[in-house]
Write a structure and sequence with these properties.
Blueprint: H1 2-30, E1 37-38, H2 48-63, E2 69-76, E3 79-90, E4 95-96, E5 103-104, H3 110-122, E6 143-147, E7 158-162, H4 169-174, H5 188-192, H6 203-210, H7 228-240, H8 244-253, E8 276-280, E9 286-291, E10 314-315, H9 317-328, E11 332-333, E12 336-337, H10 341-347, E13 364-366, E14 371-373, H11 376-379, E15 388-392, E16 396-401, E17 406-411, H12 422-431
Parallel strand pairs: 1-3
Antiparallel strand pairs: 2-3, 2-17, 3-4, 5-10, 6-7, 8-9, 11-12, 13-14, 14-15, 15-16, 16-17
């Protein structure tokens, strides 16, 4: 009986996949929700035949039940050449994926938060080398956790020493501040032992709690992915006098017409919210439901008091491509300027020198909110040197390539996802379609 049901489900998913591909293709030709102009791929140096490999490759993951569904979009020279929904957004309720499906984008929030702070930089409110403590005094007199030597006095396996320099705004934008990664070995216990945050806590509460922890290393000495972008977010709040939610809506989302990007999803949009899945190790890593797209999801329900600049947003592929097209356009989209060209240029440079960017590997540096390809061969990627990108914990990714005038966004909902090559496959199948 189970095998029969499973076979039926697979057939249904395949049928919906085919229907969705057709509908997506038709709807994207008629009226792309991205607001960007459409073009035949060949008119912007893209091969239609080779571009179709994106669909074929993603379909394999869906047919193997490793992903429920995907939305992908590719634009070159300001024109959309690919916008496609495949598979299901909600397997349990047999709801096909749509191009306007809303996804949890997690750490793809970070570039938006970084842009928000750099908008205030352009207003002359700070310089990158200014200490964070100028606005957030809880970061004064930070301590650094240092491993104890053999034979030192009993106690924790570390001792605390004074930080030898202040945490700067550039440090928190580049993940070099020394703030701990709560998922790295040795840091989890300290995070769990933090003062309990009361229900309804906000970003200010979270940052003050974070500042009580010791640093993992001296500011500027290493690159360590962390919640540093929440410090960036809190700086936005303090400098602007607005909550992060208000700043994003007034200064970024409304001007760029990003109408489906939210910290907490309005219940009126639940019919477009994607379910989130996890790999079932007991069943060949086929998907199993982890978070249903209902009003009880933590991305929907009250309270709506905590706005995480590190990873709190939800968005559509078409909304998100508008934001990154703005960055590719050096700060402007459809006559709306968010940043000046020189600021965008500064953000997309490598600011971390030769520090290892362990999460991305060799050939990468880190800018102000973006990882940057510094050597394509070392990075083992077809991305052009100077390409800037980041991804999210629920298996989403984007990149912008200034040299190729290209922006691409991939959305799905799977956590964890590192057992799959789907994000790397998306990158290679997009770039191999460039023929001019």
């Amino acid at each position: 009986m189970f095998n029969r049901i499973n076979l039926y489900t697979t057939k249904l998913r395949t049928l919906c996949l085919c229907i969705t591909i057709l509908l997506a293709a038709q709807s994207s030709i008629a009226a792309p929700k991205s607001g960007l102009k459409l073009a035949k791929p060949e008119t912007v140096g893209i091969s239609s035949e080779r571009l179709a490999r994106i669909e074929t490759n993603l379909a394999r993951y869906i047919e193997r039940n490793e992903l429920a569904g995907t939305v992908s979009i590719v634009a070159r020279k300001g024109h959309v050449v690919h916008l496609q929904a495949q598979g299901m957004r909600d397997v349990e309720n047999a709801k096909p994926m749509r191009t306007d499906t809303i996804f949890r984008i997690a750490s793809m929030t970070k570039p938006i938060t970084s842009v928000a702070l750099m908008m205030l930089y352009e207003e002359g409110l700070f310089q990158l080398n200014d200490p964070v403590s100028k606005w957030l005094p809880e970061f004064e007199q930070m301590k650094v956790m240092v491993q104890t030597a053999p034979g030192e006095t009993a106690g924790p396996p570390y001792k605390l020493v004074d930080a030898n320099n202040a945490i700067s705004i550039k440090h928190v934008l580049t993940h070099t501040a020394g703030l701990m990664n709560p998922y790295r070995q040795g840091h989890l216990a300290l995070y769990q032992n933090r003062e309990t945050l009361a229900p309804g806590f906000n970003l200010e509460d979270s940052i003050k709690s974070m500042a009580k922890l010791p640093l993992a290393f001296q500011p500027g000495d290493e690159w360590q992915y962390s919640s540093a972008t929440n410090v960036v977010a809190r700086l936005v709040e303090v400098m602007s006098g607005l909550t992060l939610d208000e700043f994003f809506q007034e200064r970024i989302f409304a001007p760029l017409e990003m109408t489906d990007t939210h910290f907490y999803l309005p219940t009126s949009k639940l019919d477009r919210f994607a379910a989130q899945y996890a790999p079932d190790e007991a069943n060949d890593n086929r998907i199993k439901l982890a978070d249903a797209p209902t009003k009880d999801s933590r991305f929907v329900k009250q309270p709506h008091s905590y706005f995480s600049g590190s990873g709190g947003l939800m968005s559509t592929a078409t909304d998100y491509v508008r934001f990154q097209q703005m960055m590719l356009n050096k700060g402007e989209l459809d006559g709306v300027r968010i940043l000046g060209p020189k600021t965008v240029e500064l953000m997309l440079k490598n600011h971390t020198g030769d520090l290892p960017i362990w999460l991305r590997g060799p050939g990468h540096g880190f800018g102000l909110g973006y990882s940057v390809v510094t050597n394509s061969a070392d990075a083992i990627t077809t991305q052009t040197e100077g390409s800037a990108s980041w991804g999210g914990a629920f298996n989403t990714i984007f990149w912008i390539d200034p040299e190729e005038e290209l922006v691409a966004v991939f959305m799905s909902q799977l956590r964890p996802y590192t057992h799959l090559n789907v994000r790397a496959d998306f990158i290679s199948t997009v770039n191999q379609a460039i023929v001019e």
